[in-house]
Amino acid sequence: MPSGYANDYRRRDLGKLPPLGTQQYRHPSLYSSTSLPRQYFCIEGHINGISTKIWTLTTEEKETTHRQLCENIKFKILGYLRTEEYSLKILSKSRNRGYAVKIITWNCNGGFRKKYHSLDCFDADLLVIQECEDPAQSTQDYRTWAGDYIWIGESKNKGIGVFPRKDHSVEQLKWHGSFKITGLCSTSLSLSWSTSDLRLFLPFRLSNGITALAVWTKGRESQAFGYIGQFWKYLQIHRTELAGDRTMILGDFNSNAQWDKPDRWWSHSDTVTELETIGLLSLYHQQTQDKPGAETKPTFYLQKKHEKPYHIDYVFLTSALSKGAKLEVGRYEQWIPLSDHMPITFELKV
Prior knowledge:
This protein is mainly β. Strands 8-9-7-6-21-20 form a six-stranded mixed sheet. The chain has a six-stranded mixed sheet with strand order 10-13-14-15-19-16. 31% of the residues are buried.
């Protein structure tokens, strides 16, 4: 509140003003007319994820003037301040400051409807869960908890779910395309593929503008391009979409450099090198300096056995997102009762 106006802080004419409580409006600009009697109101909420208070101008005549705020502000009306002297010079002291977004990626090994509360301790902003059920076809408690989520899968019981928490939101991106290997004499149909042929990828955009790709690669013994091969094929189609400055790829890749084969151009190491050419680097390897294939912190335990550790879950970030980012891998003792995968938690300074 502006200095010297504490005694003027009051609610007035509530019948003509937005109701008290949380509202969400979607308007691109701030209203700042001086042609009508002045009155100021305080809003408290989030602008692009930044918690803030704003004093701004309104009028007693049109409720719509209160709604011309920055896009996606969720706010609570605290009260109203009337004065002829205070101006709109102060909007938000914290608007340009960076803030942390905490994200978790985890293959829950199924049955997420019984496990989601185990992640409450992280107080995360976004959860990206592999091998989870579709909340729309599950229990009421799970549906209520899921909120405004997105999900894809090949059955109602196992897919990728993206669950924004707090005041964040996500938008599923409709990426479609195809790719064909040219320059060969072969006419095999396997030389071309489309996005819909590949499993399992969920592109989305966060409310703070970050483009993300959730990954749960799948494969079969009879499939030459299984697991990392599926991702390599996806990368050939959507390289341009993934080449933005604020991009992340995260999830269960079911792959590691130790399984590279010299006659595969889509081996793990070759695919990671392709990601590097568009500016995407593994946050784990940047942070630990572990060599690929010799990771010291496993993310997966085959058959849940401590003596069978592997590192197959990853977070790839562009340099704009990796600055100041921190990553942690869950501990075996804590998470093995729930899944054969450990959750990966990371924070972005955005």
